[in-house]
Amino acid sequence: MAQHEHVRVAVIGSGFGGLGAAVRLRREGMTDFVVLERADSVGGTWRDNSYPGCACDVPSHLYSFSFAPNPEWPRTFSGQEHIRAYLEHVADTFGLRPHLRFNHEVTIMRWDRDELHWVIETANGATFTADFVVSASGPLSDPKTPDIPGLADFPGKVFHSARWDHDAELAGKRVAMVGTGASAIQIVPEIQPEVGRLTLFQRTPPWVMPRMDRKISGAERLLHRAVPVTGTIRRGLLWGIRELQVSAFTKHPGELGLVEKMARANMARSIKDPELRAKLTPSYRIGCKRILLSNTYYPALAQPNVDVVASGLAEVRGSTVVASDGTEAEVDAIIFGTGFHVTDMPIAERVVGADGITLAEHWKDGVQSLRGATVSGFPNWMTVIGPNTGLGNSSMILMIESQLNYMADYLRQLNVLGGRVALDARPSALGVWNRRVQERMKRTVWNTGGCNSWYLDANGRNTTVWPGTTAEFRRLTRSVDLSEYAVVRAPKQPAAPTAGQQRGAQEPAIGKAAGKAGEESAGQPAGKSAGKSVAEEVAG
Predict the structure, then answer these.
(1) What are the DSSP calls for 431-494, one per residue?
(2) 86/369 Cα distance (integer angstroms)
(3) Whole-prediction pTM value?
(4) What distance in Å separates the CA atoms of residue 538 and residue 492, rounded to the nearest whole number?
(5) Fewer CB atoms near the end CB (10 Å): N or C, the chain?
(6) What percent of the chain has pLDDT over 70?
(7) What is the pLDDT of residues 12-24, one digit of tens each?
(8) Could you tell me which residues are beta bridge partners of residue 209?
(9) Residue 283, Cβ neighbours under 10 Å: how many?
C-alpha cells in the first residue's frame, strides 16, 4: 500500500541545507518532520560529485556548521570524501536518521487551499502532507549538459563531472574536457598524466589564483580538540578576512586590480608559451566569474599531451569533436564540466502553488524571492540557497545558517497565530526587496566586469549572488516581518443548523452583513500591508 503520512515540516534534500534545517528543527524542539532524499544517502552535491580531485575551494573550518565544528579536518581545503563523511557525522550526532526518507524523490508538491497544507508525492509511491515545506534541493543538484549536434551518436564514453563514470577507462585514451569551471580545473590535473591526449574546450578562460592548501598537523587537531575555542577563533579569522573583501566585489571593483596582477603572475610561473598564455588570459575583470584556486591546473595545461582549444564545443561527428572555431580532434571519451541548472532549477517544475501554477511558470521572467526564501503564491514554502543568496568569495554555510534563523522564526510565527494558518509573501514586499537587490547589483563586479557568467539568467539579470556581506544578510533574515506577509486561514466549517435556524434561513437576509470585513480565509488573505522597511533595510 502507498505510504501516507502527515508532518508539521517536510524538508527536501539532505545536503548542507537539508541537514542544517533538520538540526535546527530538532534544536527548536520539533520532531514532527521528515527529510525527503532522492538518493540512498546524505550528502547532496558532495555525494553526487565524486570526480578525481573533487575538493572544496573554501577553507575547511569555514565550510562547516558553526554548531558542529570539526577539529579533525585533515587539510585546510578538504576533499569531497572528507566533506561527505562530515555530513554523515552530522546526521548521526544530531539524531537525524529517524527523520530521513531515502529513495524518496519528490515528483510533485501541491498547495491545498482548503486544508492549508502541501501534498507531496514521491517517485516510490509515497504521499506526504506537510504544513510547511523547506526546499533544500540546492542549485548545484542537477547537471547541465549542452545540446550538442551529433552527441547522441558518439561511440565512446560521455558523462558529466557530477555523474562521474568510475568504470570508464581513460588510461591512454584521447579525452575531450568541455568547460573550464571549478570542476574542470580539478579534473584536468588528475587525468592529464594518465590519458594519451587531452583536448580542453574553453569558451572563456578563468582567473586562477594559488591554492594555499596544506595538511593540518596532528598538533593543530589536538589543540582544536582540547581547546575548542581555538577552532572558533580560526573560523572567525577566516570569516573576517572574507568579509573585508566584500566591498571590492560589490562597491569598488577597481580595487581588484592588484588581485588580477597576482593572478597574471601565477599564470606566468607555469605557462611560458606566449601563445598558450594568450589563450588562458581572461578579457574580463577578475571576480566577474568565480575566482578559481589551483596549484596544478596551469602546469597540467603546459604538458605536451594537452591541447587548449579557445572555443566551445559545437558539433560531434562520429569520433570527431568540432569546436566553434572549426578546430577538430579525434577522441575516445567526452567529459562535460558545464555546470548546473542554477537559474532554472528543475525542482521549480514540481512545485504547484495556490493559484495552480508551477513555480517554474511563476518564475518564467526570472527567479526572485523575498529575503532569498519565500515566494508570493506559495504559502508556507521556503527555499534554502534561494535567489540572490550565493557568494563569490566566502562560505555558503554562513548563508544557510542565516536562512535557518528565518525558517525557525517563520515557524514560531505560525505557532503564535495558532490553528490552521499560513503565511504568503506579499507581492509588494517581494517586489521592493528584489528591486533594491538589483539596484545594488548594478555597481558590483558581477555586473560591470565584462563577463557572461552562470550568475546571470537568460535575461542578463544576476539572480544568484548576494550583493553584500554575510553579516548584513544575517541581520536581514534574523526574524520574519509579518507586514511582509498575508495571513491565510482555513475557511470555517459551519455548524449544523438548528430547527429555528433552518426556518430563519428561509427569511430574506435584509440588513444582515454577509460576512465580516477583512475576515481571513483560504480565499481572502488578511494582514498588514508591507511598509517601507524592506527598501530601507536593503538600500545599503
Answers:
(1) HHHHHHHHHHHTTSHHHHSS---TTB-TTS-B-SB-SS-HHHHHHHTSS--GGGEEEEEPPPPP
(2) 30
(3) 0.90
(4) 39
(5) N
(6) 91
(7) 999 999 999 999 9
(8) 293
(9) 8
d(CA 287, CA 249): 7
Please state, in angstroms and rounded to a whole number, the distance separating the CA atoms of residues 99 and 31.
8
pLDDT digits (tens, 9 = 90+) for 483-521: 999 999 987 755 555 544 444 433 333 233 333 333 344
Q: Which residue has the cell 530601507?
A: 536
Three-state SS across 47-79? HHCCCCCCECCCCCCCCCCCCCCCCCCCECCCE
Strands (DSSP E) found in 21-103: 33-36, 100-101
SS3 per-residue string spanning 487-518 = EEECCCCCCCCCHHHHHHHCCCCCCCCCCCCC
Q: Which single residue is written with the C-alpha cell 564514453?
A: 157
Q: Quick one: which of 372, 344, 371, 370 has its CA closest to 359?
A: 344
The CB density around residue 445, as the number of other CB atoms within 10 Å, is 25
In the numeric block, which cell numbers belong to residue 49? 560529485
Contacts of 513 (CB under 8 A, 6+ apart): none
- Alpha-helical runs (H) found in 179-304: 184-191, 218-226, 228-250, 257-270, 274-280, 297-301
Grid cell of 163 as nine digits: 555523474
Contact of 57 with 182, CB cutoff 8 Å: yes
Beta-bridge mates of residue 320? 317, 330
CA distances from 41 to 35, 87, 324 (A): 11, 10, 40
| Alpha-carbon span 270 to 297, nearest angstrom | 9
CA distances to 61, 101, 179, 269 from 376, rounded to whole Å, are 36, 29, 36, 52
**Residue matched to cell numbers 577553507:** 59
500 vs 504: CA distance, rounded Å: 6
